[in-house]
User: Fold this.
Amino acid sequence: MRTPLIAGNWKMNLDHLQAIALVQKLAWTLQDSGHDPKAVEVAVFPPFTDLRSVQTLIAAERFELALGAQDLSPYESGAYTGDVSGAFLKALAAAYVIVGHSERRAMHGETDEIVNAKALAALKHDLVPVVCVGETAEDLERHGSSAVPVAQVRTALLGVPDDADVVVAYEPVWAIGSGRAATPDTAQEVCAALRAAIAEDHGQAFADRTRLLYGGSVKSGNIASFMHRPDVDGALVGGASLDPGEFAAIARFPKHVSID
Ligand code: PGA
Assistant:
């Protein structure tokens, strides 16, 4: 009922020429491996400066890839130097936008309230926000794994209409880029807690259709063990999304044998 989503967050990597090369290789690798876009949705999240080139390529070649951006402004337009509006992203055929990635929370002071404003701005422009939540190593020690992500998601989704389409990514901060992923049991436990909180705040139907991703050191070798958990509907992949062969292998997870 929920189509799995494999999302590649490139972060600040690859200029527009490198982006074209990667997307071409990724699309061909997916096609060669018999990828079925109806069974598994694949999306790429390049830097802003690559979006136009990637969008043109996807449209011209009819690649079965969705496009997303890594951030957006909570505002429409105006004196916000360096920011990019949801309207501009929509005009480039972006379908998704990441909001509240832990790197933005840590390095750009994004609070839960700002993340909420950005999620609402995304929805206003018909973009699906990929709302990132997750505990730091210190949070984990103090509060366990679920409390902080659950509190973050509740604030991030305040005022979101009941018919909205959102994606939530659970990314423990200590697992990002560390090579040390959460266990599939922990990912399942936190995603189940997130879904329960979303159901309480927005109704069971909203919670049932919302896709919950796990992120943090996802690779082709561990994806199947996450995807076999009932509340994990996909992955937000950082480092491994920069290697088209590896990223395509992650998107082929239904063909993997579970290692757990
Ligand atoms: P990683 O990053 O896959 O490199 O751990 C995940 C993310 O930050 O979204």
Remarks:
- The CA atoms of residues 16 and 104 lie 22 Å apart.
- The two ends are 24 Å apart (CA to CA).
